[in-house]
Amino acid sequence: MPQPTYSWYHDQQEVVFGKHYQWGRNGGDLVIPRSFPYDHGTYSCMATNVAGMAKSATTLLIVKGLKFSQQPPEHVTVLVGSTQDILCQVEGNTNVMRIGWYLGTHKIQHCETYIGHVK
């Protein structure tokens, strides 16, 4: 069977290979060494040879890393029986973020807010 020729498209525009888009080791693989927000979208691979053509597509979602905009303090001291709010806020793509709170090494289940008591 003759080897296929590969073409890649990003949102229906042919990909120009160079520094930003590179060929992978397997001939038809597309490599994006460092992704940017403008890389999101639909990528299509078209392979052709004398026997015909095949096409496949996938969607690439670029997610910005999370960073703390308000980090909880390292140590908090409160009086027994009192209430203490410990705030934590993050910036980034919060649509794909999971929030988890821990008491020591024990994960506090099913809550984004934990109300606990000092023992």
Features:
4-stranded antiparallel sheet; 10 strands; two-stranded antiparallel ribbon; mainly beta
Describe the structure.
There is one protein chain. This protein is an all-beta fold. Helix content is 0%, strand content 36%. The protein has a four-stranded antiparallel beta sheet, with no helix packed on it. A two-stranded antiparallel ribbon has the order 3-4. Strand 5 (41-49) and strand 6 (52-60) form a beta hairpin. Residues 114-119 have low confidence and may be disordered.
Query: In terms of per-residue confidence, which ranges show pLDDT below 50 for 5 or more consecutive residues?
Result: 114-119
Radius of gyration: 24 Å
* Shape verdict: rod-shaped
Helix content: under 10%
Relative strand content: 35-45%
As laid out across the biggest beta sheet, the strand order is: 2-1-5-6
The overall pLDDT, averaged over residues, is 82
How many DSSP H or I helices? Answer: 0
Oligomer: single chain
Break the fold down into its secondary structure elements and pairings:
Layout: E1 5-10, E2 13-14, E3 22-23, E4 30-31, E5 41-49, E6 52-60, E7 67-70, E8 89-91, E9 101-103, E10 106-108
Antiparallel strand pairs: 1-2, 1-5, 3-4, 5-6, 7-8, 9-10
Please give a quick description of this structure.
0% of the residues lie in helices and 36% in strands.
